[in-house]
């Protein structure tokens, strides 16, 4: 059971043709899906006392899919596909000769270089979205998310088809989500980013993170308390998070450079585009038990990305490096801010992959 099945399961209750309720979610004519960035299943269980409302809801654990990172998971929410099919395969990845930062839709390392005209989002991710399908079936589809995300490359790639309402804060997000489902056959996707941001800077489980979790719990409770009778609130996440303390710096380790033409991904999962078959063995030996280092073919065969289509193959790279335990491969010179973060995600540990799927039906 994966994040890609969440929206189809909810749209089945809204009579959208082809939508299958594989997760056996409650059928409702008004639905709010709240995605809390970084709310891992294990983190929520470990800190349940800080989230009494969320912890009281019926639910289960599902998988974010690999890589366990925001852009890939949001694309899975929007398309009903995993990364190997929708092609948003990482935080940064190669599209032809360009390295795309999929969150900012800019050239990796240069946020001022907007790529929306040269790497058109609807071409980079060409599959029809579930929101387009739902709107075509007569469902009122809305997205309530940060103002800055309106018209972004990722929004266009993954969420097109939804009417977008920019939210300036907690109250705006809550009231916007409730307002979006006042009419019959309505679906609202709501997104809250700040728990993930706090986790990156201070670490999941830190005092700052726990206080933010309390705010998130209050946000979900306030949405639930204002929903019309019979409406359903579903809360999920895009990934979990771990605290890292074992940093390997690619930029200062010449042995790791040899035969590597381009390195993409992020610290917990790296894709290596290579010029030598020896790269796999060198990285495997160097990292030892700190990572799973597989060829692209072996990672695909192992099912890491789900079904893999031609769109994603070249973007994955020749070698896939999935970090274990608390290790990361950072780039202190090319990615100075990213390299210093305390909390990270992207790899295949249960703490990163497992996300909650929680359900509340308004009385």
From TrEMBL:
InterPro entries the UniProt entry points to: Alkaline_phosphatase_core_sf, Phosphodiest/P_Trfase
SUPFAM superfamilies, alphabetized: Alkaline phosphatase-like
Top-level lineage group: Bacteria
Protein name, UniProt field: Alkaline phosphatase family protein
